[in-house]
Each structure stands twice: as structure tokens, then as C-alpha cells.
UniProtKB/TrEMBL annotation, chain A:
Signal peptide: none annotated. Residues 120-342 form the NADH:quinone oxidoreductase/Mrp antiporter transmembrane domain. GO terms for cellular component: endomembrane system; membrane. This is NADH:quinone oxidoreductase/Mrp antiporter transmembrane domain-containing protein.
From TrEMBL, chain B:
The chain crosses the membrane at residues 6-25, 32-50, 62-84. It is an enzyme of class 1 (oxidoreductase). GO terms for cellular component: plasma membrane. This is NADH-quinone oxidoreductase subunit K. Gene3D superfamilies: 1.10.287.3510. Belongs to the CPA3 antiporters (TC 2.A.63) subunit C family.
From TrEMBL, chain C:
The chain crosses the membrane at residues 6-29, 36-55, 82-104, 116-137, 143-161, 173-195, 215-237, 249-271, 277-300, 307-330, 350-369, 381-401, 421-439, 466-488. This is NADH-quinone oxidoreductase subunit J. It is a multi-pass membrane protein. It comes from the Bacteria. Residues 139-433 form the NADH:quinone oxidoreductase/Mrp antiporter transmembrane domain. It comes from Roseicella aerolata. Belongs to the CPA3 antiporters (TC 2.A.63) subunit D family. It holds the Pfam family Proton_antipo_M. One of its GO terms (biological process) is ATP synthesis coupled electron transport. One of its GO terms (molecular function) is NADH dehydrogenase (ubiquinone) activity. Keywords: Cell membrane, Membrane, Transmembrane, Transmembrane helix.
Length: 545, 106, 501
């Protein structure tokens, strides 16, 4: 095992090791203060182990593969950085105590899964990591113990398990398509286009991963869960964990033209999601909910870029999409930290430390030239640049500007009344670090990601970059006084339609319960026994020569 | 008409009676008796099997029947013991009614 | 059909050790019974491990001819792959239950011996002997006797508390089991009439698909299904398993139904010709599917914790039957996977369900009742038991990296490989429902009680540790390297000799 390969193992192993250490009482008590350390091997792996030869442990055909290509290294690095900063923020946010310790346990499990999806190279470990990230997030969401948090957690868990089921079935189909016992993702993906169950498998993959990434109509858990979780948890949920869906789509759906038809479907879903998120987001009052809807919208754009890349067989799609998602990891993670900070800060002198970077990040989502967001938008231009799709993408950028300006208004409304209220440095520093990373890292990574010189980007199409921002700002100004619309759409929009389904389910349960009680009577059981003997004999006799 | 037919028919009748009694009767003692009828029928069938085909009686079914009788006796003893305790505690020996099962809110 | 193989004596010891222990315990009384039982069950784990190792190393079943006489007149003991695997599972669960039982049934020095501990240890040994006989027997009539012994021992353990409701539900169990055994015995009579032998190996070589054989198979199958409580023949299981003391429930749900299942496989995979078996297998799997859905749905609606766990058993038994049409589909690779998946499901369910009943007992003991809706605070009172319940639930739902996950994955891929999609849907849907009822218990237990609630009394950690260890084994089964799974294929008809795991 070479050094870079050891880093890959450490990326997953470090959180698990810390988790194991929690068996010891003393280690458990100081764990909240150590959370920031856990993702550091992941960060190191992203920097040093990209494109290292994958680590294959072929123990009697149970192939365990860990590897990192350039797109996943980008995402792994950003996610590790966010997890680390949010971990430091969480320590200041919760302090010590049983609650913080419980939070730390869930945090570590979720972390190992969230980083694991980026390095897993085979179906089994990918599924395991994905399940850990999806299911353990429940513990982060319900941390506050309020009925709202619990409901959000339950909806999340239910949908996460459904997503797992879709993925499990899809993976079984993939494993069946591969000749021989290999479980490597690369081989499964290569065999996918020729598989007889291709349509079903791809549909299940899009459903399972789209659910995690918040694609409409499977996004309903996201605007419930992200606002209900405590600040640091919302930050990693929206920043890092949602990307498990994106990396899944990237890994399993090759953008080489073999799945062009499904690319169109994904692009359509993505664009619908992009506008849906804006439409539902601008009527939300809670800034965290606005951010959650912005995440939905942004993931829609990401999926649309991937879908168009698949449809057009555009080379470099994986890298471009990963770059776009990386910016979102950093910026969205930072903004959630800002919400927690704004509530704890008063007076204009300190508030600008929160509001000014937040404004820059917020406008970055709309593609304000000069921001990291503008670079991200430029990166997916080959996929989303032309024709009707290009117009829709630009309009969604305008929508994002509108949505994020709405977010800024709600954020200002949240700031503390007391002008003397000053934020703790333990909260302020992670926020400033993440904000700086979100603004600067895209510039630093742009050339390395094979996207060219970042300084060329602003000059390429200045008019095309500016008009969505201006349109969004104009719309925001026009809508600024329409506060009576706030709350018109409940959090989790479509979920309010699930009532009849619930009642139907309950009625079915009651009916099954009654039928079961009837079958449990002695005469019924005796009759079943007789019928069973005759049926078995009859069936067997049909096959007898 | 073969010599074994009456035994076969009797065995079938005993089995049918026993099964019916086990399913339809609620009183424990009746169920125990039905069990014994059922067992008797099955053992009789083994006797029929032992006679069939071979001119000399086959020893294996006899061994089986003897072992089976021991098992049936043990089952009867256990059932009677349980029924007696049940009678001592509740004053009745019936297993009718739903013993703490059923869905929520029962 | 060779004679005694090298190492065949191990089988005799496996049988004789608990049987001899039971007699000794009966003769020597309470205090000695505990020591004898713990020693015999501990040795039993070692013996079962040795049997499995010998079978694995030889790549062929171990056999022993009692008295050196060959069937049809002699009696053969045989341990093939599935028997060795289930024997190991059973011995570990039995030892765990014995260690768990020490909390309630120990007789410390200076305390007068009581009846309940004496009965507990003696019947535990009897159960162990009966299980060994049911797994190692190779003669259909001997297997009947073993199953009867198993029922008697299990039933006596289940009635140990002496409550009227227990007597009532265990009597139901006894009567329904007796119907089952009568039907089974009827089938063996027909088979004996047709073939003049009841040895499984000889029957497998000679069985024809004629009317007496098929009728015999139908009767025996129905009888075994009644004993396994496959839906809709499950009337006795929920009250019997839920009403028993935790240790007995763990054995009933974890092991006793599995012994009947191994016997069912003997009839279906060994004795019956493949054509009629394959034709009727979808019916059994269909009932299994119904069991999964109905059992899980009813479990989801249960008020009582132990009834919830018992209905979960009704559902999980259903998974075992899904393997039949997959094994008999005629596809060698799918058959191999389905067989492994089925056996792994049986083993991981044995560990998980035993852990679940033990921890359910501890939870109910800590909060003073077993209403699912009011388990608030259990997580604080018996955290280890709640964790054990959660881990066991993980395996039942089929969340990786648990044994239940691997089992369901194997069944799933076998179902897809043979084009039988519908079973895949049932497996996955059942997992979702299972998650629902496990969540109900965990969410209730982990609710933090109000600050005014009285502090829970500290509980002895020993029993909770046992439950946790069982749950961990159930999860760890999913981490076994696949090479270790080659064991269960040994001796299966149709398994290619020398084929990889």
C-alpha cells in the first residue's frame, strides 16, 4: 500500500477510528473538541492522492476498491474542508455535555459515509458509504429533539430508505450485467449500456441518487431536514451530504453518449428542479429554508449540466459538473454557518463581517462576475450554454440571484437586536475561513481542473454573464415589498399532498390486521392446512411425468 | 378386497376424526383425546404399510410405531400436565379466546 | 453412501454431550445443573466449530453409522454444510442464552435450590440435544422424533414463569405442533410403504415423481409448515413467542423454527425429484412473501413490544421460503447464491432475533411494561440493550454491513438472475416495513424523558452484554469473507463439486 493509498484508507478510517475511541468514556467526553480533526486525512487525500492507482483488496472475490479520480478529488477536498470547519463551529455551538457527545457520534458516522462515497470504487463499499451518510444524517437532524426536528428526521429517514431500496435494486442489476464476480463500479458502468435491464437500472439510479440530491419531486425531505437541523449540521447536510447524490450520478452515468436518451431526461428533471427551487424558495420566511430551496435549485442546475453532457457526449463533463458542485459545497456550507452567526451578532460594526461576505457568496450563486460562482457557471457553459437550454440556464441564474437576495433580506431580519452582541471567535473564524475558501478556491482550482486560465473567464462573455444578475436584482427589487406571500408554500411543498396516501396506508394496515386476525382462528387455520396440502399435491402432480 | 383395506379405511377415519377434533374443539381435554385418535390412525397406517407387499411382517414399521407411541405418550403427558396447571390457576381448561394478541388498542 | 468418515465420532459427541449432561443434571440437582449446562454448552460450541472445520477441510459431509450398520436397517448421522453451519449457529445462541439466563436462574451458595432454575438448566440441555439430533439426523423418522423432543423442551422452557396465559398459548403451540407432526408422520408412512426406507440418502437416490411420493411430500411439507408457522398457519406463534420468558423466546424464535426449516429443505432439495419440487416451490415462496408483508404490517401496528418482535419472526420466516424457487430454478449460479442467501438469512436471523428478544426483555424489565408507545427513557435505563435491539434491527432490515444485508443481497441477485423479479420486490418492500417497526421501538426508547422523571435503577450489565454480543455477531456475519461461505454448499445436491464459493 503506497502513501497516497494509505491516505484513501485514512480518509474513511479516521472518523471510524475516532468513533471506536468513543467506547472509552474519557475519549467520548473530549470528542466534540476533536471533530475538526476527523476530516483532515480526507483533505490530505484530495490533495495528494488524486489519480493515484486505486487500492484493490481482492480478498476472495469480494473486491474492495478505493480510488480517487480528478472530479471526486475536487469534491472530496471541498467536502473535507467544510466538514472540518463545521466541526470546529459545532464545538463552539454545542460546547460539551451529553448532547454534544451524542451529536459527535452521529457526526462521525455521517462523516465517514459522506467522504466514503467519494473514494469508494466498488458497488459494495459505495453502497455502504452511501447508506451511512443517508441514514446517520437522521441523528444530526433530530439533535434538537423538537417535534419539528423529529418529523423532519422521520420523513428524511423514510425517503432515504426508499432511495436505498432503489439503489440496491439498481446495483443488483448492475452486478448481474457484469460478466464474472467483479463488483468494481467502472466495470459495472461499462456493462450498463449493453444490459437488457438498462432502462430500469438507469431509472432506479436516477431515482435513488436524485432523491439524495433533491431533484423534484423527490426533494420534499430537504426543505424539512436542512432547516430543522442545528446550524453546523445544516451546513454539512446542504454542503457535503447532498453531493453523495451528485457523485453517484457522476460515477454511474457515463457522459460518453451511450446514455444520451437518459441524459435528456436528467436534464429536464434538473431544469424543472432549478426553477421549482426558486419558486418555492422566494416565499419562505426562514432564511435556512430559503437556503435549502436554493440548494434544491442549484442541484437541479448541476443535474441539468450532467444530463446535457450525457446527451451531447461533451468531453470534460464530469470535471465541469464536479467543479460546479465543489463551489456549491463551499459557498452553501459557508452560508449556513452565516445564518447561525447572524442570529448571534448585533450592531453594524461587527455585522458587516457576516453580511458582506454573505452577500458576495449569495450573488455568486447567480453568477455575479468576479465571484467563484461565476467561474462555476462558466465551467458548465459547454453543457448549458446553447439554444433553449442556454436561455433556461440563464433564467435560472436570474432566479438564483432573486432567491439569494431574498435570503439576504431574511438574514438581515434575523440579526440580533442587541447592538452589543458579539459572536464568539469559535463561530466567527470557521465562517470567515469557509467564506474565503468559497470566494478564492474556485480561482485557485480552475486551471488545475483543466478548465483553463480563470482570468480569461470574465472577459469571454460579459454581457451574457451580467444580464441574469441584473434581471434577478430587478425582480428582487420589484418583489421586495410582497411580504404577505411569505409562507404561501409550506416547507416541503409537495409533502402536504401526502395526507391521502397516509390515510390510505393506514386503512390498508387496518384491513390487513383484520384479515390476519380472521386467519388466526383455529377453523381458518385448519382449513388453510387442508387447502395447502391439496394445492401442493396438485401443483406437484402437474409436473409429474 | 384386500385384507388391509379395512385397516386403511379405519386409519383414514381415525385421522379425519382426530384432525376435526383438534381444530374444532376448544376444551383442552377434548383436544388431547383428538390428538390420541389422530396418532392412533397414523400408527394403524404404519401397521397397514408393514403388512403390504411383504409376506413376513416388516420389523421397521413396528419399531417406528413403538417409538411413535412413546412420543405420543410423552406429548399426552405434557399436555395433561399443562392443562392441569391451567385448570388449577384459572378454574377452567380452555384455550379459546385471544391471549393478549391482536393489534394496538386491544 | 459410504460408511463412517474420519472424524465421524465428533457427531456422536455432539449428540451425546448435551444428552448426557441433561441426565447428569437431572440426577445431581439444581446447583450442579447450572455448572453442567454451562460446561456442556461451552464445549458444544467447540464441538460445533470442530465439525464445521472438518467438513470445510474435507469438502464432503461427515458421517457416522451407529453400531456400524448401514441404512436401511442402521441409523446414520450426517453433518453436511448446512447442518454444520446451523449447528454452529445454534451452539453459539444456546451458550449466549445460557449466559443470559445466569442472571435469573443462578443459585448462589447459601441459597436453597429452587425448581425453576433446575428446570431451566435441564431443559436447556434437552433443547441442545434435540437440536443436534434434528440437524445431524439423516433418517426421516429420527428427525420426527428430534423435532418432537425439540418442541417438548422448548415448550417447557416457555412455561417456566407459570402464568395462565403462558400455559394457554403454549398449549396452542403444542396442539398445532402435534397436528403438524401427525401430518409429517403420515407422509413418512407413505414413503416407507413406497420405498421401504426412510434414509434421506437412499430416498434421494430412488425417489420417483409418482402419486404416493408426491402426496407424502405434500403432507410432510404441510406438517413442517405448521411447525414453522408459515403464514397463514401462524396462529400459535405470536402468543407463544411473545408470552414466554425472554430466554425461551430467543430460543423459540431463533432456533426452533430453523430446525424444522432444515428438515423441510431435506425433503424438498434432497428427497423430492426436481421437477415437482420446482413446480410447487412458487406456492411456498408466495406464502413466504405473504408472510413478509402481512407479518411486517401487523408488527408495525402492534402495541406490545414482545408481540411486535414475534410478528417480526412471522415475517422473517417468510424470507427463508423465497430461496426455494430460486434454488430449484435450474440455474447453477443462482441456486448457489440463493442457497447461501437462505442459509445466511436463517443464521443471521437466529442471532438477530435472539438478541432482539433478550434486549426486548431487558427493556421491558427496565421500564416496567412493554407498551411500544411508552418506552420513553429506556435508552437511558438500559442503553446497551437498546443498542443491541438497534443493531439486531439493522440486520433484520438488511442495512449493510450486516449478515441480513448479505443474505438479502444474495437472494436479490439470484431472483434477478433467474428472471423472477417479483421476489426482489418483496425482499425490498419487506425491508422498508421492517425498518418501520424497528424505528418505532428505537424512536420510543431513545426519547429523552422529562427532567422530572425518576432516575432509572442501575441494571446489572451482564445480560445486556450477552444481547449486544449476539447482535454484533449477526452484524459481523456480513463481514465474513465469501470464502468462508463455501461451507454451506457442501453436500447440497446439484452443487458442483469443486465450484468456488
Amino acid at each position: 500500500m503506497s502513501g497516497p493509498q494509505a491516505l484513501l484508507v485514512a480518509a474513511i478510517g479516521m472518523p471510524l477510528l475516532l468513533l471506536l475511541a468513543c467506547l472509552h468514556g474519557a475519549a467520548r467526553r473530549c470528542m466534540p473538541g476533536l471533530l475538526w480533526i476527523a476530516p483532515l486525512p480526507g483533505l490530505a487525500a484530495a490533495l495528494l492522492a488524486a489519480d493515484a492507482p486505486p487500492l484493490v483488496m481482492d480478498a476472495a472475490r469480494l473486491r474492495l476498491t478505493l480510488g480517487l479520480d480528478a472530479p471526486s478529488a475536487l469534491l472530496l477536498g471541498a467536502a473535507s474542508l467544510l466538514w472540518s470547519m463545521a466541526g470546529a463551529y459545532a464545538f463552539r455551538y454545542f460546547g460539551r455535555g451529553p448532547g454534544a457527545e451524542r451529536f459527535a457520534l452521529w457526526w462521525l458516522v455521517t462523516l465517514s459515509g459522506s467522504l466514503g462515497v467519494f473514494v469508494a470504487g466498488d458497488l459494495a463499499s459505495f453502497y455502504l458509504a452511501f447508506a451511512a451518510a443517508s441514514l446517520a444524517a437522521f441523528g444530526l437532524i433530530v439533535q434538537d429533539g423538537t417535534p419539528r426536528a423529529r418529523r423532519a428526521g422521520e420523513v428524511t429517514l423514510l425517503l432515504a430508505v426508499m432511495g436505498e431500496i432503489c439503489l440496491l435494486l439498481a446495483f443488483a442489476l448492475l452486478a448481474e450485467a457484469v460478466e464474472g464476480p467483479s463488483l468494481a463500479i467502472a466495470e459495472a458502468v461499462a456493462a450498463l449500456p449493453g444490459s437488457p435491464a438498462r432502462g430500469l437500472a438507469v431509472g432506479l439510479l436516477i431515482t435513488g441518487f436524485g432523491l439524495k440530491a433533491g431533484l423534484v419531486p423527490l426533494h420534499v425531505w430537504l426543505p424539512l431536514a436542512h432547516p430543522a437541523a442545528p446550524m453546523p449540521a445544516s451546513s454539512v447536510l446542504s454542503g457535503a451530504i447532498v453531493k453523495a447524490g451528485i457523485i453517484g450520478l457522476l460515477r454511474f452515468l457515463p457522459a460518453d453518449g451511450t446514455l444520451a436518451d437518459w441524459g435528456g431526461v436528467l436534464a429536464g428533471l434538473g431544469l424543472l428542479t432549478a426553477f421549482w427551487g426558486v419558486a418555492c424558495g422566494i416565499v419562505q420566511a426562514n432564511p435556512k429554508t430559503v437556503l435549502a430551496y436554493s440548494t434544491i435549485s442549484q442541484m437541479g442546475v448541476t443535474a441539468a449540466a450532467l444530463g446535457m453532457g450525457m446527451a451531447l457526449a461533451e468531453p470534460g463533463t464530469a470535471m465541469a459538473v464536479a467543479f460546479y458542485a465543489t463551489h456549491h459545497v463551499l459557498a452553501k456550507g459557508a452560508l449556513f454557518l452565516a445564518v447561525g452567526l447572524a442570529a448571534a451578532t448585533g450592531g453594524p460594526r461587527r455585522l458587516w463581517l457576516v453580511l458582506l461576505p454573505a452577500l458576495l457568496l449569495a450573488l455568486g450563486f447567480g453568477g455575479l462576475p468576479g465571484t467563484g460562482g461565476a467561474l462555476a457557471k462558466a465551467a458548465v457553459k459547454p453543457q448549458l450554454g446553447a439554444g433553449l437550454v442556454g436561455l433556461l440556464a440563464a433564467l435560472s441564474a436570474a432566479g438564483s440571484t432573486l432567491l439569494m437576495l431574498h435570503f439576504m433580506r431574511r438574514l438581515v431580519a434575523l440579526t440580533a437586536e442587541d447592538p452589543q452582541r458579539r459572536p464568539a471567535p469559535g463561530l466567527l473564524l470557521p465562517w470567515l475561513g469557509m467564506a474565503a475558501a468559497a470566494l478564492l478556491l474556485p480561482w485557485a482550482l480552475h486551471a488545475g481542473a483543466g478548465l483553463g486560465d480563470p482570468w480569461q473567464v470574465p472577459g469571454q462573455d460579459p454581457a451574457g454573464a451580467f444580464w441574469p444578475v441584473l434581471l434577478g436584482a430587478a425582480l428582487a427589487a420589484a418583489l421586495a415589498r410582497r411580504d404577505r406571500w411569505l409562507g404561501a408554500v409550506p416547507e416541503g411543498d409537495l409533502l402536504s399532498l401526502a395526507g391521502p396516501a397516509r390515510r390510505l396506508g393506514a386503512a390498508c394496515g387496518t384491513a390487513v390486521g383484520r384479515a390476519e386476525a380472521v386467519l388466526r382462528a383455529w377453523p381458518a387455520a385448519g382449513l388453510s392446512l387442508l387447502v395447502l396440502i391439496l394445492a401442493l399435491f396438485g401443483l406437484m402432480a402437474t409436473a409429474a411425468p | 378386497m384386500s385384507a388391509t383395506l379395512p385397516y386403511g379405511v379405519t386409519a383414514a377415519a381415525l385421522i379425519a376424526l382426530g384432525l376435526f377434533g383438534l381444530v374444532a374443539q376448544a376444551a383442552v381435554l377434548r383436544k388431547i383425546l383428538a390428538c390420541n385418535l389422530l396418532g392412533g390412525g397414523v400408527f394403524l397406517l404404519f401397521g397397514v404399510v408393514a403388512r403390504r407387499g411383504a409376506t413376513a411382517a416388516d420389523a421397521v414399521p413396528q419399531a417406528i410405531v413403538i417409538t411413535g407411541l412413546v412420543v405420543a405418550f410423552a406429548a399426552t403427558a405434557l399436555a395433561v400436565a399443562l392443562a392441569l396447571r391451567l385448570h388449577q390457576i384459572t378454574g377452567a381448561a380452555t384455550i379459546a379466546g385471544e391471549p393478549e394478541s391482536g393489534p394496538r388498542g386491544e | 453412501m459410504s460408511g463412517t468418515t474420519p472424524g465421524g465420532w465428533l457427531l456422536v459427541f455432539t449428540l451425546a454431550l448435551p444428552a448426557g449432561g441433561m441426565l447428569a443434571a437431572f440426577a445431581l440437582g439444581g446447583r450442579a445443573a447450572e455448572r453442567i449446562a454451562l460446561a456442556a454448552l461451552g464445549l458444544g460450541v467447540l464441538l460445533a466449530g470442530a465439525v464445521a472445520a472438518r467438513v470445510q477441510a474435507a469438502g464432503a459431509p461427515l458421517a457416522y453409522l451407529v453400531g456400524g450398520r448401514a441404512p436401511p436397517l442402521g441409523i446414520r448421522l450426517q453433518a453436511d454444510g448446512i447442518a454444520a453451519a446451523m449447528l454452529l449457529t445454534a451452539s453459539v445462541v444456546l451458550l449466549a442464552v445460557a449466559l443470559f439466563g445466569r442472571a435469573a436462574h443462578a443459585t448462589p451458595p447459601g441459597v436453597a435450590e429452587a425448581r425453576a432454575p433446575f428446570a431451566f438448566w435441564t431443559f436447556l440441555l434437552a433443547l441442545s440435544a434435540a437440536l443436534a439430533a434434528a440437524l445431524l439426523g439423516a433418517d426421516l423418522f429420527n428427525l420426527f422424533v428430534a423435532l418432537e423432543m425439540l418442541t417438548f423442551a422448548a415448550l417447557s422452557l416457555a412455561c417456566l414463569d407459570g402464568r395462565a396465559s403462558q400455559f394457554r398459548s403454549e398449549l396452542r403451540y403444542l396442539f398445532f405442533a402435534l397436528i403438524g407432526s401427525a401430518l409429517y408422520l403420515l407422509g413418512t408412512a407413505l414413503l416407507y410403504g413406497a420405498y421401504g426406507t426412510l434414509d434421506i440418502g437412499l430416498l434421494a437416490a430412488h425417489a420417483r415423481a409418482d402419486a404416493p411420493t408426491l402426496l407424502a411430500a405434500a403432507l410432510m411439507t404441510a406438517g413442517l409448515l405448521a411447525r414453522m408457522a408459515l403464514f397463514p398457519l401462524h396462529l400459535w406463534l405470536p402468543p407463544a413467542h411473545a408470552g414466554a420468558p425472554p430466554a425461551a423466546s430467543a430460543l423459540l424464535s431463533g432456533l426452533v423454527v430453523k430446525a424444522a426449516f432444515v428438515l423441510l429443505l431435506r425433503v424438498w432439495v434432497w428427497v423430492l425429484p426436481p421437477a415437482p419440487a420446482g413446480a410447487a416451490a412458487p406456492l411456498l415462496a408466495g406464502l413466504g412473501a405473504a408472510a413478509i408483508l402481512v407479518g411486517s404490517l401487523v408488527a408495525l401496528r402492534q402495541e406490545r413490544l414482545k408481540l411486535l418482535v414475534a410478528y417480526s419472526t412471522v415475517a422473517q420466516i417468510g424470507y427463508l421460503f423465497l430461496m426455494l424457487p430460486l434454488v430449484l430454478a435450474g440455474d447453477a449460479e443462482a441456486a448457489r447464491r440463493a442457497w447461501l442467501g437462505g442459509v445466511l438469512q436463517a443464521a443471521s436471523h437466529a442471532f438477530a432475533k435472539a438478541a432482539m428478544f433478550l434486549s426486548a426483555g431487558l427493556i421491558a424489565g427496565a421500564v416496567g411494561h412493554d407498551r411500544v408507545a411508552a418506552l420513553c427513557g429506556a435508552g437511558r435505563a438500559v442503553p446497551m440493550a437498546v443498542i443491541a435491539f438497534g443493531l439486531a434491527g439493522l440486520s433484520l432490515v438488511g442495512i449493510p454491513p450486516s449478515g441480513g444485508f448479505t443474505a438479502k443481497w444474495l437472494l436479490l441477485t439470484a431472483a434477478i438472475g433467474t428472471g423472477q423479479w417479483w421476489w426482489a420486490a418483496v425482499i425490498l418492500g419487506g425491508g422498508l416495513l421492517t425498518g418501520g417497526y424497528v424505528y418505532r421501538v428505537l424512536a420510543g426508547s431513545l426519547t429523552v424523558p422529562p427532567a422530572t422523571a425518576p432516575q432509572p435503577e442501575p441494571q446489572a450489565p451482564g445480560p445486556a452484554r450477552v444481547a449486544l454480543a449476539l447482535a454484533l455477531v449477526s452484524v459481523a456475519l456480513g463481514l465474513l469473507p465469501f470464502a468462508a461461505f463455501g461451507l454451506v454448499q457442501i453436500g447440497r445436491p446439484g452443487a458442483l463439486a469443486g465450484a468456488g464459493p
